[in-house]
Amino acid sequence: MQRTDTIFLNVLDQTDPELMAAARHIDRTGLLRVICLPPGEGRPREPHFSIVPDEAFKDHNTYNAIVKVCEVPGVIIRWASEVPTKAEGLAADEARARARGFTETEIETHLRPWVAEFKAAQQAAMWEAEKDYKSAVENYAQAVEGTHPVVSGSDTVDLSGEKRPGA
Fold first, then answer.
1. Sorting pLDDT into bands at 50, 70 and 90, what band is 26?
2. Residue 32 and residue 24: Cα distance in Å, rounded?
3. 47 closest CA partner among 3, 14, 82
4. What pLDDT shows up at residue 166?
5. In the structure, what pLDDT confidence band is assigned to residue 133 with cuts at 50, 70 and 90?
6. CA–CA separation, 29 vs 24, rounded Å?
7. Which of 65, 107, 130, 156 could form a Cys-Cys staple with 25, CB 3.0–4.6 A?
8. In this structure, what are the phi and psi dihedrals at residue 2, rounded to the nearest 5 degrees?
C-alpha cells in the first residue's frame, strides 16, 4: 500500500455533488490534493492512504468532508496519531492495520508487544553472555600468566623434563 497526498476522482465520482463539495473543501484547506480525472481514465487500482494532521479532524466541516471522501473506493485517510488497535483478534487486527497502511514495525509495536519484550530480553541476555565471556577470558589469562616454560632456541627439553643446553 502506498502513501500519497492525492485523491483521484473519476467521472462517476464527479457526478456526486456532496462528494465534489467535500473534495473541494479538502483541496482548499490544503490537506490533500484532489485530482478530477478526465473521461476514460480510472482511479489507481491499488489502495492508497493519506495521513492528515490531528488538528484537521477538530473542524466539523473538514471532518465531514474527510468522511465523505473516504467513501471513494481505495481511499484511506488516517489521523497522524492513529495507531493499530486491538479489537477482533490478532489476525483480524493485523489485517485491518495492513489495510489502513501501517508498516510491519508499527503492527509489531502496537499489536504484538510481546515480540518487542522478547527481543529486549534476548538482547539483554546477549550482552550478559558477552560480559561473562570477556570476564572468563580475563580470569583465564591472569590465572595462566607465568605458568608456561620459556624455551629459548638453543635449549631443548628432554623427555625427562631436564634442560639440555645446546642439544
1. very high
2. 10
3. 3
4. 54
5. very high
6. 9
7. 65
8. -110, 140
What whole-number distance in Å separates Cα of residue 91 and Cα of residue 107? 11
Q: 34-42 long-range contacts, Cβ below 8 Å, gap at least 24?
A: 34/6, 34/7, 34/9, 35/6, 35/7, 35/8, 35/9, 36/9, 37/8, 37/9, 37/10, 37/11, 38/11, 39/11, 41/10, 42/10
Give yes or no for a contact between 5 and 33, defined as CB atoms under 8 angstroms apart.
yes
Q: Where are the alpha helices (DSSP H) in 57-112?
A: 60-69, 90-99, 104-111
User: Is the pLDDT reported for residue 158 higher than 70?
Assistant: no
What gap in Å lies between CA 31 and CA 27, rounded to an integer? 6
Distance between CA atoms of residues 121 and 118, nearest Å: 5
What single-letter amino acid sits at 150? Answer: V
Segment 93-103, tens digit of pLDDT: 777 777 777 77
Residue 154 has pLDDT above 60, yes or no: no
Contacts with 99 (C-beta within 8 Å, 6 or more apart), sequence order: 1, 47, 76
Beta strand extents in 20-137 (DSSP E only): 33-36, 48-52, 75-79
